[in-house]
Amino acid sequence: MERKSYEEIEVNTSKQGKYYKMPNAHYHHVYEIYYLIAGTRKFFIESEIYNVEKGSLVLLEKNVMHKTEYSSDRLGERTYVLFNDRYYNVLASELGTDAVKKCFDRKVFAIPKNRRVYIESILKQLEGEYNNDDEYSSKLMEIYLKELFIFLIRYNKSIGSSDSHILSSGDEIIQNAARYISDNYNKNISLIDVAEFVGMSSTYFSKKFKEVTGFGFKEYILNIRMKRACLLLLETKLSVTDIAYETGFNDSNYFGDVFKRIKGVSPLKYRKNKEYI
After folding, report:
1. String of b and e for 105-143 (b: at least 16 CB within 10 Å)?
2. What is the DSSP letter of 200?
3. Of all residues in the chain, what percent carry a pLDDT higher than 90?
4. Is residue 49 part of a domain?
5. Environment class of 63 (CB within 10 Å of its CB; exposed 0-12, middle 13-18, buried 19+)
6. Number of neighbours of residue 80 by Cβ within 10 angstroms
7. Is 212 within 8 Å of 171 (Cβ atoms)?
8. Do the domain assignments include residue 132?
9. 148 and 16 in one domain?
10. The model's pTM
11. Which domain holds residue 115?
12. H/E element holding 59?
């Protein structure tokens, strides 16, 4: 039988080297579950920083910009599950849209030690059905995903608003800078502006921002602007010129050139081909 496409579902477990870094920040048009079996990782998600330990599960909604890199010299191992709207809609319909959304809003779950074997067994069964791929696989994967989210919804309710999102003072400063950039991406903000906002010299801030997030300042603000531009192209009828100004580009021709360089097509072609994205 033909392999299920990436756009439907994909499950993979692999080990990663001590110094593995995701080559580029990215976002995708599917949902992601990331479970860390071994090692420690630093996640930068939109404008938030998370130190992720062994036994943690990360949930990423569609179109959420993220990047991850090592935060120790230990070998890592992880399982990821990517799935599309069809699977998400099954979860939302049967378990409740609000309950599922709240799980994605939390983003990171530190799974208790006595429940990790259970979580890992669900993920192994998901991967087994993904690799088996017969006429029953899709339904079984729906069942295993549902079981996983039932656990997460119940666990989310039990821990309430408690937050394990604890950062060092240095990481917290950079997170505040990232939030500031994310809130003001459509303005003409500079590296000097943001460095002044967090009380650092521009040279030190530039170095520290790259060290903590994995992004250069210009790279980060461009990623945010491009992500927003893509959403506006797909979800509104605004002109390309209006979208350019809405996302912080002062010149629509420059915006078009940058968009084509990054996405490989013009803004209008990207909008026209939305069903293939």
Report:
1. ebbbbebeeeebeebbebbebbbebbeeeeeebbebbbe
2. -
3. 68
4. yes
5. middle
6. 17
7. yes
8. yes
9. yes
10. 0.81
11. 9-159
12. strand 56-60
